Amino acid sequence: MSAVVQTIDANAADERELTDGFHLVIDALKLNGINTIYGVPGIPITDLGRMAQAAGIRVISFRHEQNAGNAAAIAGFLTKKPGVCLTVSAPGFLNGLTALANATTNCFPMILISGSSEREIVDLQQGDYEEMDQLAIAKPLCKAAFRVLHAADIGIGLARAIRAAVSGRPGGVYLDLPGKLFSQVMDAEAGAKSLVKVIDAAPAQIPAPAAVKRALDVLKSAKRPLIILGKGAAYAQADDDIRALVEKSGIPFLPMSMAKGLLPDTHPQCAGAARSTVLKDADVVMLIGARLNWLLSHGKGKTWGEAPKKFIQIDIEPREMDSNVEIVAPVVGDIGSCIAALLAGIDGKWPAPPSDWTGAVRAKRDDNVAKMAPRLMNNNSPMDYHGALGALRSVIKERPDAILVNEGANTLDLARGIIDMYQPRKRLDVGTWGVMGIGMGFAIAAAIETGKPVLAVEGDSAFGFSGMEVETICRYNLPVCVVIFNNNGIYRGTDVNPTGGADVAPTVFVKGSRYDKMMEAFGGVGINATSPDELKRAVDAAMNSGKPTLINAVLDPAAGSESGRIGNLNPQSKLKKK
Known about the structure:
Mean pLDDT: 94
Distance between the termini: 77 Å
Number of strands: 20
Helix content: 25-40%
Strand order of the largest sheet: 4-3-5-6-8-7
Number of helices: 21
Shape: globular
Keywords: Decarboxylase, Lyase, Magnesium, Metal-binding, Nucleotide-binding, Thiamine pyrophosphate
Strand content: 15-25%
Organism: Bradyrhizobium sediminis
Structural class: alpha/beta
Protein name: Oxalyl-CoA decarboxylase
Radius of gyration: 26 Å
Low-confidence stretches: 8-14
Domain Thiamine pyrophosphate enzyme central: 212-342
Catalytic activity: oxalyl-CoA + H(+) = formyl-CoA + CO2
């Protein structure tokens, strides 16, 4: 039971035990196995954080709420329990809301708990401290939003938030706790009875047998089948069954970036290095926890070629089906149940895919890998992306248990194709929205939730969104090695101001920046690396030591291209100056 307040009833002159909103929130979290909170302290939740720590909950305090929210979101992805972010009201809530919206888009279970101003004043718009109708603002940007006004409802409010976050398609949930809720007092025994332990928060959703049979029939008819694994497949933690399905079927598979490692990228059936070929030439495509969004060119257009396609889709959300193209065999249910049902239908008589297809995929993959190999072995100084990533590729190969966090433009686009992954849920990146700023939040939560060493590979622009959190990494002495690909700017550092004025171009940063000095300022290890060999030695030393480390990897300012491989998303002017 929580700490209690002793008080004297003046009328009955007897002593009874009381509890309050602070303790009920903490007890409700602990009852449901939530033992870590990510957040930023301040009015009105400062004491909640202090008391949570005193009660044995780990409270990780950040420098900005968006980074704390990103940490909570990826904690949810890694653990299948909702990560919790705790913020102050109004601006702090808004900072956390960006991460909550991103979590919802990526299907990461997360709860944003924010203190808020008094309802009576907010509703009359009388100008309270940090006045804002936070519940109304949050609702369109998350899966569910709740407000608790009475201490007796804290248990049910948190239970609803937990169930909403993890059931069905996971996502972000907002829980609004007005400031005066925390000091509300009630009988301790009644308070204990008001708490709810959530049972079977994410119940299995079994696919219909007819849907499973339809999918197997379509798959069996394929001449050029392909399996695409999305991050939903990684989240499901049905690793053994997914591997068995791929291997028993003999079908080539293409992992999306956060699904890399479900089967090793070096697996003989992996088509990652032949992506263009398999998307263009496949005739039947089975999507497992992947969506036909912009990352897969919406399932149509030049990327997918002229060959007619049939799509099988496995997803827990029925509305995802037919979102861009016709799905001829929808299988609705949780991925673990769906894969188990499909696996039961693949027996020893299952026909192997035609050898001309698997042979063509293998040949294309091997050819592309061979063409890339020399570029990854260069030791140029200053570095280019391929030389630097070649060094980091070797680090992950030697340390497959390490977690890779990756963000940027070129840094992201190239790394996800070059660095092979060998175990599931070891690659964490920008996901569905393609946002920047997730790096330090993801790295901190990955280290805390798994205890594994983390390698965060950041573009210099991407790092700027959350760079101050290197102090947080040092404060908690986390085994995080941050590598910044520093080419002096966004995309590259060679743009010039066309007017000839004193201002640099909008995409250019301070030349010769030494990001490593930032880490040294907080007691961590800072290293400046100018060649792939230096980079490899520095990262190895960091990963061996487990000490907070930041490596400033000096890249050629001309290295990089506009927006990496998604440059077509940047509109171009068709007008020419006269």
